[in-house]
User: Which sequence fits this backbone?
C-alpha cells in the first residue's frame, strides 16, 4: 500500500513502548468536561478521548491534572488523581484508549503561583518567589519542606497513574506552572541554591524527576513539556530550555516543546497560536533541540494543522513527533484521514478559541487571575458540532427524504452535509453565485486563513456528498413547493444593520462585508463605525492594505463581546497598529461626504473620512425564513435566522441539529 506520509506514520519506539505513528493529541484540560464534583471521570469524557484514539493518533494525552489538590489545583476541570475511588474510571479511560490502539497519557502539574485558592481550600498558592498577585492574592514562598512534599506528590501521582493503567505521563514543565516557575529566570528570584544559575533553577525540577523515577521505575515513560519561549522579557528562551533538557535527558524519555506563560496575558494567544500567527510557529524549537544534540525524541506542538507540514518536519529531522490540540478537536479523525489519503476531508480548526474559553470561567477584560464560576459554560467546538455530545448517536436515516435547504452559509452547508451523511437527498439553494454566506469574506483577509480553509472544507464536503447546489437561485416558496420536498430547512441568515443615522445612505458609506471584498473601493482615510469583532477585523484588514483607520465605538471598550483569548489578541493588534486610532464612548450622529460626526463625553467631534465603513451588527432574516414554513410537511429554521445573529459555532451546531432531527 502506498502510504501518503511515510515519516508521519512510521512507528516510534520509546523505551518499551511502540507508538503506531508520530501523532500525539496534546493535553486539553477543558476536554475533561463532565467531571463529577469529586473530580471523577464520567462516561462522556471517556468517550471523548476514546474517539481521539479511534481517530488514529498514537498517543492520547488527557488534560492537566494536579498532583496536589490541597495547594496545586489551578482550575475547575481537574480530574482527581488523589482519590482511590477515581481509579476505576481512570482505568476505564486507559482501557478505552489502549483498546483503540493508542497509548494513554495524562499531563500532571502543580499550579504553584497560579494555583487557584477557590479549589484548594482557600490556601495561599506557593511559588519559588513569594509575591502578591494583581487580584490581591498572597503567594507564599515555597519552603524546602514543601518542595520535598511536592516532589513526593509528583511521585505518588505517577504511581497512582501506573495503577490506573497508564504507561506514561506528561510532566507539565511549561507555561510557568510550578516547575516552569522554578526554571524561569524572570520568575525565580531566589538567592539560595534553588535560584540564580540554570543549575540552581533546574534543581527542583530535577529533584521531582528523580523522585518520580525512584517511585515508578525506568519503564514508565516520562514526557516533559517545556516552553521554548516564555514570551516575557528576561524569561526562558529556547537555548536555555534545550540546555535544561540536556541536563535531565537521562531522567526523561521525550521532550515536548510548547510556548507561553501562564502569567503573561499576551502570551495566551501564542500558547494557543492565534489566526495572526503562521502555522507551526514552534518548529524552530525542534530545530534548536536537534542542534543542541538532544537525543531523546522531540515533540512539538502549536498550530500543526496540515499533514504535509507534519511529514516535512519529521522528514527533515526537526522533530520526531507532532502534538495537536485544536486540530484534533476540530477533527478527531485527522490521523486516519491523513493515513488513508483522505487529506481533503480533514475539517480545519478556525482558531476561534471557543473550546478554550466557553468552559473557562474567565471574566470579560479580566487579567490572569480573573476566574469566576459564574461564566463557566461548556466545552464545544465551532466547527465540530459533535464535541460535547459525543455520546449521542446520530443514526442513519430510516427513510430517505428530500431535503431542501435555503441558504448556503455555514448553517445551510452544515445542515446539508449532515442530512446527506445520514442518507437524505439534499438540495441547497443559494441566491448569490457562491457558497459561504457571511464567512465568504475570509477569502479576502490574510489573517482569516483558518476560516477560509474551513469555508472551503464545507464547500468541498458539499461537493463530495453529491449535494445538488443551485447557485444564483433566489428561492421562493413557489419554487421550493414545486419540487415537493419532504423537509425544508431555512438558513436565510442575517443582514447587516443600517441604523437610522443621517447621511448613512451616502455613496461614501459602505458595509464592512463590502469593504473586505471590494478593497479597491475603499478610500485612503477610513472611519469604521462599530468595534465589535467585525469592525475590529475590518480595521485591521484595512490598515494592513494601507489605509489609515479611525475605529469608532459607542461602548467604553472595543470588542466587548469577543471571546476571552481572541479579545486579547484582537485588542493588542488594534492598539499596536500605527495606522489605527480608536475612539470609544463615541456615538455616530451623522455622516456626510467629508466624514462622520460623533458625540463623545467631551462633546461633538468631526472625523474626516474618504470612506465610512459600517460594522454595526446584523439583523436576523426571520420573516424571510418563515415564508417557507408551509412548503413541506416538515420545516426547520437554523442559524442566524433561528436564534438571532450569533457566531460560527451556533450556525454550525444549529445546522447540524436541524439535520439530526430528520
Ligand atoms: C481546549 C484546550 C485545552 C487545553 N488544555 C491544556 C492543558 O490542560 N495543559 C496544557 O499544557 N495545554 C493545554 N492546552 C494547550 C494545548 O495542549 C496546545 O499546546 C495548544 O493548544 C497549541 O496546540 P494547537 O495549536 O494544536 O491547539 C489546551 C488547549 C486547548 C485548545
Ligand atoms: S474551531 Fe475553535 S473551538 Fe474548534 S478546535 Fe478550533 S479553536 Fe477550538
Assistant:
Amino acid at each position: 500500500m502506498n502510504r501518503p506520509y511515510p515519516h508521519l506514520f512510521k512507528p516510534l519506539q520509546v523505551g518499551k513502548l511502540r507508538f503506531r505513528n508520530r501523532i500525539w493529541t496534546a493535553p486539553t484540560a477543558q476536554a475533561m468536561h463532565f467531571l463529577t464534583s469529586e473530580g471523577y471521570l464520567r462516561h462522556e469524557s471517556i468517550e471523548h478521548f476514546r474517539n481521539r484514539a479511534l481517530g488514529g493518533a498514537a498517543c492520547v494525552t488527557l488534560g492537566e491534572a494536579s498532583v496536589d489538590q490541597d495547594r496545586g489545583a489551578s482550575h475547575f476541570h481537574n480530574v482527581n488523581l488523589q482519590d482511590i475511588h477515581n481509579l476505576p474510571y481512570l482505568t476505564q479511560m486507559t482501557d478505552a484508549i489502549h483498546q483503540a490502539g493508542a497509548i494513554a497519557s495524562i499531563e500532571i502539574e502543580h499550579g504553584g503561583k497560579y494555583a487557584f485558592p477557590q479549589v484548594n481550600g482557600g490556601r495561599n498558592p506557593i511559588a519559588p518567589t513569594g509575591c502578591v498577585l494583581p487580584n490581591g492574592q498572597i503567594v507564599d514562598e515555597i519552603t524546602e519542606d514543601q518542595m520535598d512534599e511536592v516532589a513526593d506528590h509528583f511521585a505518588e501521582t505517577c504511581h497512582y497513574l501506573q495503577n490506573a493503567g497508564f504507561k506514561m505521563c506528561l510532566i507539565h514543565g511549561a507555561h510557568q506552572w510550578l516547575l516552569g516557575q522554578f526554571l524561569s529566570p524572570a520568575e525565580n528570584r531566589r538567592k539560595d541554591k534553588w535560584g540564580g544559575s540554570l543549575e540552581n533553577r533546574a534543581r527542583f525540577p530535577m529533584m521531582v524527576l528523580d523522585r518520580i523515577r525512584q517511585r515508578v521505575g525506568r519503564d514508565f515513560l516520562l514526557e516533559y513539556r517545556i516552553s521554548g519561549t516564555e514570551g516575557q522579557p528576561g524569561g526562558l528562551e529556547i537555548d536555555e530550555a534545550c540546555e535544561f533538557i540536556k541536563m535531565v535527558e537521562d531522567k526523561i524519555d521525550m521532550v515536548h516543546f510548547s510556548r507561553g506563560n501562564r502569567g503573561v496575558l499576551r502570551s495566551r494567544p501564542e500558547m494557543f497560536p492565534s489566526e495572526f500567527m503562521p502555522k507551526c510557529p514552534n518548529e524552530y524549537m525542534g530545530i534548536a533541540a536537534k542542534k543542541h544534540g538532544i537525543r531523546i525524541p522531540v515533540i512539538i506542538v502549536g498550530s500543526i494543522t496540515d499533514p504535509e507540514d507534519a511529514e516535512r518536519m519529521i522528514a527533515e529531522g526537526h522533530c520526531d513527533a507532532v502534538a495537536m490540540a485544536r486540530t484534533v478537536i476540530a477533527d478527531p479523525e485527522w490521523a486516519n484521514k491523513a493515513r488513508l489519503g483522505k487529506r481533503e476531508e480533514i475539517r480545519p480548526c478556525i482558531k476561534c478559541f471557543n473550546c478554550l474559553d466557553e468552559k473557562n470561567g474567565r471574566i470579560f477584560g479580566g487579567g490572569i487571575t480573573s476566574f469566576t464560576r459564574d461564566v463557566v459554560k461548556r466545552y464545544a467546538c465551532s466547527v465540530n458540532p459533535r464535541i460535547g455530545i459525543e455520546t449521542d448517536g446520530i443514526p442513519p436515516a430510516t427513510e430517505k427524504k428530500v431535503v431542501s435547504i435555503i441558504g448556503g452559509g455555514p448553517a445551510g452547508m452544515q445542515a446539508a452535509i449532515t442530512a446527506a451523511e445520514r442518507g437524505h437527498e439534499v438540495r441547497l439553494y443559494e441566491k448569490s453565485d457562491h457558497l459561504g454566506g457571511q464567512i465568504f469574506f475570509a477569502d479576502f483577509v490574510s489573517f482569516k486563513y483558518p476560516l477560509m480553509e474551513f469555508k472551503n472544507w464545507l464547500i468541498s464536503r458539499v461537493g463530495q456528498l453529491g449535494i445538488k447546489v443551485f447557485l444564483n437561485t433566489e428561492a421562493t416558496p413557489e419554487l421550493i413547493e414545486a419540487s415537493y420536498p419532504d423537509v425544508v430547512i431555512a438558513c436565510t441568515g442575517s443582514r447587516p444593520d443600517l441604523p437610522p443615522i443621517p447621511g448613512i445612505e451616502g455613496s461614501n458609506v459602505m458595509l464592512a462585508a463590502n469593504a473586505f471584498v471590494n478593497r479597491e473601493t475603499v478610500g485612503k482615510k477610513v472611519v469604521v463605525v462599530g468595534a465589535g469583532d467585525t469592525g475590529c477585523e475590518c480595521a485591521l484588514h484595512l490598515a494592513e492594505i494601507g489605509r489609515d483607520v479611525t475605529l469608532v465605538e459607542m461602548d467604553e471598550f472595543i470588542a466587548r463581546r469577543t471571546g476571552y483569548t481572541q479579545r486579547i489578541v484582537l485588542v493588542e493588534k488594534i492598539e499596536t497598529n500605527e495606522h489605527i486610532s480608536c475612539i470609544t464612548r463615541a456615538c455616530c450622529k451623522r455622516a456626510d461626504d467629508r466624514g462622520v460626526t460623533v458625540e463623545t463625553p467631551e462633546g461633538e467631534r468631526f472625523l474626516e473620512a474618504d470612506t465610512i465603513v459600517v460594522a454595526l451588527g446584523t439583523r436576523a432574516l426571520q420573516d424571510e425564513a418563515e415564508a417557507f414554513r408551509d412548503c413541506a410537511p416538515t420545516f426547520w429554521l437554523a442559524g442566524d435566522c433561528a436564534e438571532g445573529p450569533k457566531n460560527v459555532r451556533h450556525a454550525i451546531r444549529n445546522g447540524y441539529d436541524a439535520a439530526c432531527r430528520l
